Amino acid sequence: MQRVGVFVCHCGHNIGSVVDVEKVVEYAKQLENVAVADHNLYSCSEEGLGSIKKSIRENKLDVVVVAACTPRTHEPLFRRACEQAGVNKYLFEFVNIREHCSWIHAKEKEAATEKAKRLIAMGVAKASLLTPQKEGEASVIPVAAVIGGGIAGLTAAASLVSQGIETHVIEKEARLGGLLNNISVIGPEFVETEPLIRRLKEDLERSPQAHIHLESRIVELGGFIGNFDIKIAEGAKTTDFKVGAIIVATGGRELEPTNVYGFGKIPTVITQMELEKRLAGGAAPSSAIFIQCVECRQPGREYCSRICCNVTLKNALRIIRSNPNARVTVLHRDIMSYGTTAERLYREASESGVSFMRYGLESPPKISEKEDGASVEVFDETLNENIGISGEIVVLATPIISQEGTAETAKLLKVPADKNGFFLEAHVKLRPVEFATDGVFICGSARWPSHVTECIAQGLAAAAKAAIPIRGGKVVIEAITAEVDVERCAACGNCVLACPYEAIEMTVIDGKRCAKVNEAQCKGCGTCVAACPNDAMQQKGFTTRQLGAMIDALIKNCKEEAVE
Amino acid sequence: MTDFKPSILAFCCNWCSYAGADLAGVSRLQMPPNVHVIRVMCSASVKPEYVIKAVTQGIDGVLVLGCHIGDCHYLTGNHRTAKRIPLLQKILDEAGIDSRRIKLDWVSAAEGEKYQKVVTEFVEEIRRLGPNPLREVRF
Amino acid sequence: MNDPGKEISRLAFDERGADYLLAVREEYGNAGPAFVAKGEDVGDIRTDIPYQLVTILRKIYPYMEDGKIAVVIRRCEEKALNELIKRGIIDGDRIIRIGLACSEGQIEACRCTDPVPSCVDIGSPGKGWNEDQLSKELSAMSSEERLDFWVAQFRKCNKCYACSTNCPVCVCDHCVLEECTFVAEKGIPPGMAFHLIRAYHLSDKCTECGECERSCPAHIPLLTFRKMTNRDMKDLYGYESGDTETVSPLLTTLEGDLLEEEED
Amino acid sequence: MKIDHVLTTCPYCGTGCNFYLQVVNERLIGVIPCKTDEISQGRLCIKGYNAHTFVQHPDRLKHPMIKEKGKMRKASWDEALDKIVSEIKRITSEHGNDSVAVFASAKCTTEENYLFQKLARSAIGTNNVDHCARLCHASTVAGLVYSFGSGAMTNSIPEFEDANCILVTGSNTLEAHPLIGSRILKAMENGAQVIVIDPRDTPLSRLAQFTLHQKPGSDIAWINGMIRVIIEEGLFDKEFVDGRTELFEELKQVVQQYTPEEVEKITGIEPKMLVDAARTYAKADRSMIAYAMGITQHSNGTDLVKSLANLAMVTGNVGKESTGVNPLRGQCNVQGACDAGCLPDFYPGYQKVNDTGANKKFRGAWKSNLSTKVGSTITSTMEKMESGEIKGLIIFGENVMVSDPDIAHIEKALNSLDFFALVEIFPSETSKFADVILPAACYAEKDGTFTNTDRKIRMLRKAVGPPGEAMPDWKIACELGKKFGAEGFDFSSPAEIMDEMASLAPIYGGVSHGRADTEVISWPCPTKDHPGTKVLHVDGFKMGRGKFAPVHHSPPNEEPSEEFPMVLSTGRNLFQFHTGTMTRKSPKLEQEAPEPYVEINSGDAKMLGIEDGSRVRVTSRRGSIALVAKVTERIIPGTIFIPFHYAEAAANRLTNPAYDPIAQIPELKVCAARIERS
Questions:
Q1: What CATH number has the domain bearing residue B117?
Q2: Per-residue pLDDT tens over the stretch A368-416
Q3: Of A538, A480, A484, which Cα lies nearest the Cα of A508?
Q4: How does the average pLDDT of chain A come out, rounded?
Q5: CA dihedral of residues A71, A77, A79, A84 (deg, nearest 10)
Q6: Residue C187: predicted pLDDT
Q7: What gap in Å lies between CA D674 and CA D621, rounded to an integer?
Q8: I need a surface site. Which of A277, A427, C141, C245 has the fewest CB within 10 A?
């Protein structure tokens, strides 16, 4: 029988002002297996943690239940406390009575108290069945691969190489540089791009640690953190190599407008990228009209591409700077010049005579062709009237969209992408340059449209993250993986087909066909567990008996309530 | 029974719907206190057996909440959920258990308000349906 | 074809190169399963008693290291065999099929919609039934009436596990229904969960052979329940079990069917 | 590769289902029901489906063993058999032939049981032979012989399907005889009314139209009450009563005082329920009674059985299809063991040992000097062992240390013996006391016949060889007989043994393995061309008229007191069988019901502070056991129930060995006890 300790947190007023914590503690004391129940003003404080640790030792607790806030933020903290007190960190169960109880039932104190009791009963039921887990270890091949040779990828690769890590750069085009090959100057500081790319390229070309594969794409990818097998098609030949970590830097691309604003019909209607080309050639127009948010932030493509406003500001200023008399108008829906430098750019543009006009999604500008240029009719929301303007060119600021072949890359790497085709990081704040799949990292516009500075920062961050397992030589494998009870397994194959990660295979153990989980490849989602008809597949920390016990606890509680 | 307090179980995936529920909490969005969340890593790990276990023993309703299709932390995990639960609902209907007692929905980490809406509406729905008849049935 | 035994033996051993034959034969005044090796006397073969030979084959198959086994199979058994082959439990190359067309009486007993094996060796093909009367009646009932009906039926369950033991596509040795992880009652009757979990587990495998219903000592209309859930599976995903190719929709992604979410 | 499907008979209850044992290279891998079997119709219960699992269990006894200086050691067959013979001979020469007893086995074949009693009577020279029927249906044999002239089930299992009313009492049919239960369910589907009278809610009572809960030990009261209602309301079968019975007036007199209100006082059954049930039973065209241990295991068990016979005869429900009084026998071959004469007062075929004609007939056939003194029953043997009157004992496959009442007393009795030989398939609680242990073959390892509860001769066919040196019991009995120097133990097959028995027991006259192999025969079957008898007493009773028994209710031997306020009843559950020797070695069965428990009414439990799953202690005047409480509404207040399968908390440590004076069946169904949290 497990000795369970229950610690209920007041969280100051956050829980304590709604849930009757003392009452809940009394209730917890009489639950099966509970050896001790106590409360803390702030369990996560030094003092709170100290008292939990003391109680673990004094009461010889096997399992710890903390009823407080959300495991999504505080679980690591309490797990560490358990470990410090000599309890395996997987013998810890978190019950959320703040976000899921006191905060959302603030006016129903009694009901909230009752619910907290039930939640704790469920938590204790699960905790009583927890088993210690050992995190596995796998060795890491000290080689990295960077997919994409744009600014983000090159930065990451150069950083890895500078740390002495052998690195493969896989670029689909015939030369490195990515989108920057078509952009000569970048904002907000008007830096020339050519030296930037050249320096990175030279760094890599000089290093014996770097292998650059041009006109290449990945055709096969297998394995898991520390030990990926990659096969690439490099021109006509194929090459195989093994790496320990992978950085995805496949970038994005500019959306080619589809039949809007006369694009393709009126020759003076051009894209931002075309303008970049013209400006790089030294030809600044006498007048220009920029239209922002073309084919984005609208039904079908809701997101904001983030960088277009700044690009427009940069190019508007480039036009003005080369031709101070130029008439530049920016038709926008909101100007997103976030950050202090970009804000300065916006101010400078305004002050230099660039006129900004706001249009609504429901009344987009109308373009008509005209001799030496185009005319635009737009409903100005500020003046509340239609205004006609004309310009030598009309520049359509279209969004960065996801790279071609993202779906294939996602499939190969077994990483998720969102509905817009951009890759999805493990956690937007806590793990921004990692994927949920261990050993695979993300940077640059493949994740979200990003400025060059952001690409560089993310490239460096991804390289730093990727270097951790490689430099360490070993990785800890998450213990919430699936495991097979060989004796039970009926080899029906459901799990093999259900696994999103192809982490399960059929094998033969002692003459018996059964499923086998590759723990390093398993992400612990539990899809296979639900597909297994006879409970042979279990997810550590979420076994069917544990969750079954939670359900039982709730059933018991509601039956008792019905009796009363 | 005028004073019907539904007992409802909710399975929330760690990455989206549980975070969505947390956000609802952080945002102090008020909702009825009948829903008890079990955190799972992915909605795809919710065995239909759990749902069957719960409803056959008198739990009045079960919510299964996951990431939106396409946003699953585990690639296509929730695709399986999206297929299992409707089948389960049909089977329950065949046996005479109202499938409206089971609800599958998607709540992202950013959708605290949606979480509140889903919970509130589901509790109302269960109130309309009344207590689970199997609560009283003895075999 | 006066003696089906001779014909079956000829087909199995002479024409199709089997090493063993699994069939039903009469002995001691009863008809039961018989497993004979090539060269042995096959005895008095019967084709009128609906033993589930695929269930029997599945049980002995792990012990058979080599040789080809001829099995006399009805359409439902053929489909069950395909399900086992699909899951890698039986190697299809080692099985020789001798198709048996069910009699009118058997078709009626099973309210069978699909009675003719892909290759008819014995018997003459009969016409399938369109409908299961009881399913129709149940579908017409209110939810409450349906629940009452099934509760009354399941209350009779004596937990003999005949429905799973004799099921050709129930492949687990250890069954969750034997434990209290999901099925609350330790004694009898086991309650609703037992039958619902079984229904769910069989939803992508059941070939409507009716063996569960035939062997149920409580006379629970289990075949009707199977037919109802099979129909649901077909309505939802267009899936029907019984071939060696189609992966259960419960194990695939949504790709190809509906990627966009429903708007509420 | 050798794969066989061997048709044989289930070794558990007395229903006698046939099934195929699936054998791969001498290994049993499964059970397949036989679809054409008349009894089981291709259906089985969970025990049947698992009947193969214990057979090749590693714990099986594989070698003869002899106890030396308190320790068991391996021995050769010769050595072990010689030891038995010399010890028994020593005892009989010192203390007389009746100082030795033999317990036969309801788990062995009829042929084997025939040899066991022959061994006792002819080779040892005593009628001290008995078997566990003493503990289950001894009162049935005595009671029904009194009423009808024959002590067996009057009708057959398939007939249940066609009954219009089925009265089930003291039988948890769905758990203890599942395939008979299946027929009752079928009958209900066909519109039959089912009346269940039991102190517990059983799976069948939950489905039945009428469920009456009587206090344990109060059965004569409700039966008499029903008879009174039937006579009062003119619902009795006058033609039958006048034409085929005697002592009706006496019966009428006796039942007079059992008004529904009076019955309620004794039994706790609501008057209206009683009247409704009586009317339903009497008005139905074909009414069957099925009963089991709840009726027989009482200190007035014989009277109880007679009362049921009264009820059937009053309404004319005897001698027709789908009627009758049907004791459901609990062991695969308890009927056969009785038929074969493993009873202290009967030779094979119910021929009395004290009948000079019968004695002469068997003397002639067995060429031996046979005693005419009625032998000692199991219950009295236990007493005589303790008192030193009986000093030598041979048991063929019984686990008396779990199955018999008041285990402390049994333990003392076994310890008092000079010599004790045991033939078994597994080490058991009893084997610890044995001086010699012989390893036997189990049902799957031998040929022979069982006679099931409805008198059908069911074939056993050998599927696999016995483990190690184990031998079938018939061979062991033959060897012992020969070593005792007796004649007539030279059999080369069970078929030969059956032939001898058929020649001596007229009810088996027409039975042979040749016929039983392909035919389903129910005894009486006097000649080779007789088809057997499905329904008894069709043309009349053996002794002419059926005899009513005017009997009164009498309280059980032990009634609740202040110290022991609860009534303890014992019985079976679905998953375990008897002392668990076989089922507890079948993983799937053990998993379903792995630990001993006591059922207690939820109201009582609340009062005593006992929760579902609490550890409790149950104590009676004789002993005390610790087990887990199962709180339920399915037992009447004041009563607790313990299944007797579990040696670790053997219910029979508590039970009362007080027995019925006629049948000497102990009152296993009622004793006073106390339950408390531990």
A1: 3.40.50
A2: 998 888 999 999 888 888 999 999 999 999 999 999 989 888 878 877 7
A3: A484
A4: 92
A5: -170
A6: 78
A7: 9
A8: C245
Q: Which residue of B has its CA nearest to C176?
A: B49
Tell me the three-class secondary structure of D197-233, residue by residue: ECCECCCCCCCCCEEECCCCCCHHHHHHHHHHHHHHC
Distance CA A353, CA A351 (A): 5
Q: Which ipTM score applies to this complex?
A: 0.91
Paired tokens of D201? 């809610």
Residue at B3 is within a domain? no
Q: Half-sphere exposure of residue D95, counting CA atoms within 13 Å on the CB side?
A: 19
Whether residue A564 is predicted with pLDDT greater than 70 in this model: the reply is: no
How many Å apart are CA D670 and CA D219, to the nearest integer?
A: 12
- Reported as a single tens digit per residue, the pLDDT across A444-493 is 999 999 999 999 999 999 999 999 999 999 888 777 899 999 999 999 99
Q: Residue C219 and residue D189: Cβ atoms within 8 Å?
A: yes
User: Are B91 and C147 an interchain contact pair (Cβ–Cβ within 8 Å)?
Assistant: no
> Is it true that domain D138-328 has CATH number 3.40.190.10?
no
Residue at B136 is within a domain:
no
What's the confidence (pLDDT) of residue B2? 54
Residue B139 resides in a domain: no
Q: What is the CA radius of gyration of chain A?
A: 29
Instruction: Give C-chain residues touching B86 at CB under 8 angstroms.
Output: 236
Q: Which runs of consecutive H residues, i.e. helices, occur in D39-177?
A: 46-49, 77-95, 110-118, 133-136, 138-147, 173-176
Domain residues for the domain of B95 are: 8-129
Residue A303: band (very low, low, confident or very high) from pLDDT cuts 50, 70, 90? very high
| Fold observed for domain D566-677 | Barwin-like endoglucanases (2.40.40)
Residue C257 has pLDDT above 50, yes or no: no
- Per the CB < 8 A criterion, the answer to whether C101 and C129 are in contact is no
Q: Is the dihedral of CA D175, D176, D180, D184 positive or negative?
A: negative
B47 to A529: CB separation less than 8 angstroms, yes or no:
yes
Residue in C closest to A547 by C-alpha: C181
Q: Do B90 and C259 touch (CB under 8 A)?
A: no
Q: What is the largest distance, in Å, between two alpha-carbon atoms of chain B?
A: 45
**Residue C258 near residue C236, CB atoms below 8 Å:** no
3-state SS, residue A547? helix
Specify the pTM. 0.86
pLDDT above 90: residue A188: no
**Does residue B138 belong to any structural domain of this protein?**
no
Output the pLDDT for position C259. 33
Q: What angle do CA A487, A489, A493 make, to 5 degrees?
A: 160
A149 Cβ contact list (under 8 Å, min separation 6):
A157, A169, A170, A171, A173, A176, A177, A178, A212, A214, A249
- Greater model confidence, D2 or A119: A119
Supply D505's token pair. 């027991």
- For chain C, the domains span 3-110, 133-237
Residue of chain B whose alpha carbon sits nearest to that of C139: B94
Tell whether the model's pLDDT for residue A107 goes beyond 50: yes
Q: What is the mean pLDDT of chain D?
A: 93
Give chain B positions within 8 Å (CB) of A130: none
Q: Where are the domains of chain D?
A: 3-49, 65-134+332-516, 138-328, 566-677
DSSP class of residue C100 equals: B
pLDDT digits (tens, 9 = 90+) for D198-220: 998 999 999 999 999 999 889 99
Question: Residue C99 belongs to what H/E stretch?
Answer: strand C95-99
CATH topology of domain D65-134+332-516: Rossmann fold (3.40.50)
Chain B residues with CB-CB distance to A72 below 8 A: 14, 18-19, 22
How many distinct structural domains can be found in chain B?
1
With a cut of 70, say whether residue B1 has pLDDT above it: no
**What length does chain C have?**
264
- For chain C, give the percent of residues with pLDDT over 90: 82
